[in-house]
Amino acid sequence: MLQITGLNHSYADGHLALDGLDLTVPDGELLSIVGPSGCGKSTLLRCIAGLIRPTSGTISLNGAPINGVPDDLAVVFQDYSRSLFPWLTVRDNVALPLRRRGMGRAERRAAALKALESVGLPDAGRKYPWQLSGGMQQRVSIARALAYRPSLMLMDEPFGSVDAQTREDLEDLVLRVHRSEKITILLVTHDIDESVYVGDRVVVLNRAPARVHADLPVELPDARDQIETRGLPEFVRMRAEVGRLVRGGARVPGAAPAGTAPTLDK
């Protein structure tokens, strides 16, 4: 459903962030993207979101080229405090993008309350963002994306600003949402454990300018648990392999070719 071919992007100062990047993402996959700090992960997501225009190359979503912000896409940013409007209630924050869908006021509010319920905040609709904890605010951001019913959700370090326990809770939330809503998700993270725990597949980018360094299927059970899953031998092996690759190690022998979408057999 997402096809990226020969993607290049240079900033005005001459910095080359992306260099001939190829990537295919099938419908319904949760893809984790990791790489060294500053390698171009966020630039890649901004190109996919239509927030910046790549220097060259093509990106298509559901067969249509991306030449601006797609209608069928939602983004969850790391800094929830800047992505929520403090003067709007939680319900109205979630409902706001639904105007773009042409929905009436009552329909928008009903969809917002349903989305809030799906992220475990059924009673928060009348509160304001500043009355909620950081983890709850990020749940609101996720609910807003879900209410929009996108075919593709981009998440740029969405849990980087919360504590460790809240981060684990939000990881499990994303897994539940992914399974129930069948939304395709691209999650950029610096956390190697997180990339393996939530992902169907992990793509490792090399140092800038970014290209796909390795493309690895995650062969873990669909049902995941913060304690049991992280203790599995396959999780330990995969975490070590991804960590080695992020630090510049050679691609794993027998790994899927860069830019391809391995078939997951679970």
How would you describe the overall organization of this protein?
- There is one protein chain.
- The chain has 266 residues and is an alpha/beta fold.
- It has a domain of 168 residues: Rossmann fold.
- Helix content is 32%, strand content 21%.
- It has eight helices and ten strands.
- A hairpin with a 5-residue loop joins β1 and β2.
- The chain is globular, with a radius of gyration of 18 Å.
- The C terminus is likely disordered.
Compile the SSE list and pairings:
Blueprint: E1 2-10, E2 16-25, E3 30-34, H1 41-48, E4 56-61, E5 64-65, E6 73-76, H2 80-83, H3 90-95, H4 105-118, H5 134-147, E7 152-156, H6 164-181, E8 184-188, H7 192-198, E9 201-205, E10 212-217, H8 233-246
Parallel strand pairs: 3-8, 3-9, 6-7, 7-8
Antiparallel strand pairs: 1-2, 1-4, 4-5, 9-10
Helix pairs in contact: 4-5, 5-6, 7-8
What descriptors fit this protein?
disordered C terminus, Rossmann fold, 6-stranded mixed beta sheet, 266 residues, single chain, 8 helices
Radius of gyration computed on alpha carbons? 18 Å
User: Helical amount among residues, as a percent range?
Assistant: 25-40%
Q: Strands of the biggest beta sheet: in what spatial order? A: 6-7-8-3-9-10
Strand residue percentage:
15-25%
What name is given to the CATH topology of one domain?
Rossmann fold
Roughly what is the average pLDDT, rounded to an integer? 88
Count of DSSP E strands?
Answer: 10
Low-confidence regions: 255-266
Number of distinct helices: 8
Secondary-structure element string: EEEHEEEHHHHEHEHEEH
CATH class of one domain: Alpha Beta
CATH architecture of one domain: 3-Layer(aba) Sandwich
Described by the principal axes of the CA atoms, the overall outline is globular
Which homologous superfamily in CATH is the superfamily of one domain? P-loop containing nucleotide triphosphate hydrolases
Oligomer: single chain
What structural class results from the helix and strand content? alpha/beta
Keywords: ATP-binding, Nucleotide-binding, Transport
Organism: Actinomadura darangshiensis
GO molecular function, one term: ATP binding
InterPro entries: AAA+_ATPase (IPR003593), ABC_transporter-like_ATP-bd (IPR003439), ABC_transporter-like_CS (IPR017871), ABC_transporter_ATP-bind (IPR050166), P-loop_NTPase (IPR027417)
